[in-house]
């Protein structure tokens, strides 16, 4: 009998497209925070990008009704006719954009919308302009799609927003997409109509460039800020723009995993091809719930935004009271993005030097037992992001701990 060779090691080799993606700072901090919690350490986690509210009752009822009605089978590949119609009406009612149902796609979360778009359009060497600070997944999804992320740094002085000159200077013959997120994760910055129009003027001069706008925080804006989206301002951009949205943030439905978008028929069709060989259709039950969210009562949105605004005001005031920390007032979303430049170079009580925002966040986690995310994760340092999508009581305790920990740093 021939002996079977013993394999003492699995020879695994990851694809080059995966090696281009770094280890997520957010996941690293989250994993450490959860491990500390399991050890009984009372860590307060301010890194979550999801509301602490529950999904509205009428939305949950729509999901239950769908289950009881037997709507638990495969649906149309990129969205049921009913949900697409609800999305169409939403775009017309709230954004002044008239998409036909075959110009609308539904996927398993907004992230899959972005993934489908990049996979459907990018070739090796194509460039995607991303103003930073920006959500970490933009760069990684571009890399997986074979493109090159061109990150344009946007300072706090300019409100963390891309200027027309910056955009014009970043565009090349290889530019395929510009990604804009308003209000933004991580900064909460939002583009006004005038600010968008200056960018639109640049895009109109470069017809080979497409625009992806991520409007997922559309309903979470403060101080009478008027939300606008580019295609609603300039219909000429409609065929070149993918307007992305979803139900996760405004309707507290992160776990339901429904994102949607409007764009040109050709793009939507190409994205459907990608989806057909990945997840296929989104959950039938989640689609029923999303339709109820978009078509049902909307009054609770203002109430929840008011709650977020109170938390925002608390967080920004307390952070700005810490020597060495400066926090700009965000126009929307539920994040505070603070400079910690004044703390760089300080020493911890244990004799360790704070050389970066990552060092500061590690220090706050280990000694204040508060988990926040370093700005380097979003492409801009030295900053850190706090999510205030948690209770006011928990925020107050976290801010107290951060204040005490920062006061213990010394030169």
UniProtKB/TrEMBL annotation:
Protein's UniProt keywords contain Transferase: yes
Listed cofactors: pyridoxal 5'-phosphate
E.C. numbers: 2.6.1.-
Annotated ranges, domain Aminotransferase class I/classII large: 42-402
Keyword Transferase: yes
Gene3D superfamilies registered for this protein in UniProt: Aspartate Aminotransferase, domain 1 (3.90.1150.10), Type I PLP-dependent aspartate aminotransferase-like (Major domain) (3.40.640.10)
UniProt keyword annotations, A-Z: Aminotransferase, Pyridoxal phosphate, Transferase
Transmembrane segments: none
A molecular function GO annotation: pyridoxal phosphate binding
One biological process term in Gene Ontology: amino acid metabolic process
Top EC group: transferase
Catalyses which reaction(s): L-aspartate + 2-oxoglutarate = oxaloacetate + L-glutamate
Record note on quaternary structure: Homodimer.
Family indicated by similarity: Belongs to the class-I pyridoxal-phosphate-dependent aminotransferase family.
Name this polypeptide is given: Aminotransferase
